[in-house]
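Long-time lurker. I teach an intro course on protein structure, and each term I like to show students one example going from raw sequence to a predicted 3D structure in token notation. This year I'd like something fresh instead of my usual example. Would anyone be willing to generate the tokens for the chain below so I can use it in lecture? Attribution to the forum is fine with me.
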Amino acid sequence: MEGTTLIKCNPNVVNAKLPKNITKIAKEAFKECLSLESVELPGQLEEIGEGAFEGCKKLKLIKIPSRIKNVPRHAFYNCVELESVDLPEGLTEIGDKAFHRCFKLTELKLPDTLQLIGIKAFSASGLTELEVPESVHEILFDAFIMCASLKKIKLPSVCDLWGEMFRDCSSLESIVIPPPGKEKGILDEKAFDGCEALTSVEFLEGTDIINARLFQGLHNLKTVKLPSSLKSVYSYAFQGDFKIESIELPEGLERIDEMAFGLCSSLKSITLPSSIRILGKNIFAGYSISEVHFNGTMTEWLKYVEKPRKGYPWIRLDEVICKDGKADAHKKDSRIKIDGAKKKSEPKA
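-- Reply from a regular --
Happy to contribute to a lecture. Here you go:
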């Protein structure tokens, strides 16, 4: 000890009870104390250093005192036997990889004061379900990646989400995705890779884009609910999602990029909103769509399209059903282009 700071703990200690006057635990103070099973932290504690309990492989439970505002990066990294964590009201941040590889941490209550969840904060943990409070405004890159037991997660109604957030969450069954906040967070194209159990996705109002390849190859995805605020669906977003039978594209949607719904073998009918400005090539390629409706007139449809480029039919059917009749689909370009509308390049995640 130095004053009121605990610098280092005996690596052979089994049960630790810290003196009441301790206000700070130094960086890596308990790191790889391989025999440590329990620790009692004093109520006066104000700071826990980075990696303070990293690699304490027998530690089973811990109660964080009320004065702690931040669980720092690597705080409980690789605490593979950690089963119970009591987080206090007043906590505002959970740092990068704070609970990475906490395999037995199946349940956790996050306080209503929490604002930020760090990079890979819970990656490869044992969480089965989690409710993220409305106070959280940002969840950083890959926070829940490889949480193979995570079945349910409730996210805030507005929140910036980043990176491959749910990759390899193989038990995740459904998700409601909020619109981004002030940082304009965007999920990476591999954010749901390996989510084999995912059957239902809903985007909340305020979402304006669905990123490229976001749900590509999710063979059990059946239900998709899109918001009226949606403007763009980028390339391959739902490609290969065999169980999607129908999808309602909202009025206000302006762009559907290449192969966005390619190989969706159960999708038999779709309605294109009159707001559409750009259709990428082969958006329904690979299987025959029996009906495509356009929420506009034949005159509008014919006005908005050009002659087809050889070898790139944008839709595999004979006609598009308009409000006042049927238009010939074979003569349409691989995209819809409205006068004055410019085709934008696909943004990078």
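Some talking points for your students: The chain has one helix and 25 strands. The helical segments are 298-304.
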